[in-house]
Amino acid sequence: MTEENLKILDYNKIWLDNEILTTALLQTQVIEFRTGQDTNKEHYRYTTFKNYLLTQPELTNRKILQLFDIIKIDSDISLAITMGLDMLKIRHLNTEQFQFVADNLIKIFGLDIQKHIDRETMWRQERLKK
Q1: CB–CB of 101/109 below 8 Å?
Q2: Domain that includes residue 77, residue range
Q3: Distance (Å, rounded) from C-alpha 120 to C-alpha 86?
Q4: Which of 60, 76, 34 is nearest to 26 (CA)?
Q5: pTM given for the model
């Protein structure tokens, strides 16, 4: 049943293995999806990813790598880019982690993402001044 539910919303088992998604949340999302109110599968994955980022008091380097595993395999490139850029917005990333995320975004998506990274870097510097 779990594998079937993963497929319904285009999740990969890595979401569960890395504890970004729970089976309870997956089941709830599938029930909601089947109501037909929101049939955009990427909305469920993005909500899960975003909520995970917002609820973590800190991210270890290992967890950052696990999040990149999810980003690299997502079938929706726009969603993958958005999730990656959201990682740059995490306030509690230290400087090394921020740079690691930025470097990996360039490795995955190429130099076209650089302008977005530059913008996030500027906003981060402003936040750190406060």
Answers
A1: no
A2: 2-129
A3: 9
A4: 34
A5: 0.93
What is the residue-averaged pLDDT of the chain?
95
Q: Using CA atoms, how far apart are residues 26 and 8, in angstroms rounded to an integer? A: 10
pLDDT of residue 127: 84
**52-106 residue pLDDT tens:** 999 999 999 999 999 999 999 999 999 999 999 999 999 889 999 999 999 999 9
What burial letters (b/e) apply to 84-115, b meaning 16+ CB within 10 Å?
bbbbbebeebeeebbebbbebbeeebeeebee
If we measure between CA atoms, which residue out of 108, 98, 106 comes closest to residue 71?
A: 108
The 3-class secondary structure across the chain, one letter per residue, is CHHHHHHHCCCCHHHHHCCCCCHHHHHHHHHHHHHCCCCCHHHHHHHHHHHHHHHCCCCCHHHHHHHHHHHHHCCCHHHHHHHHHHHHCCCCCCHHHHHHHHHHHHHHHCHHHHHHHHHHHHHHHHHHHC
Q: How many domains does the chain have?
A: 1
Only one residue has tokens 């696990």, namely 66
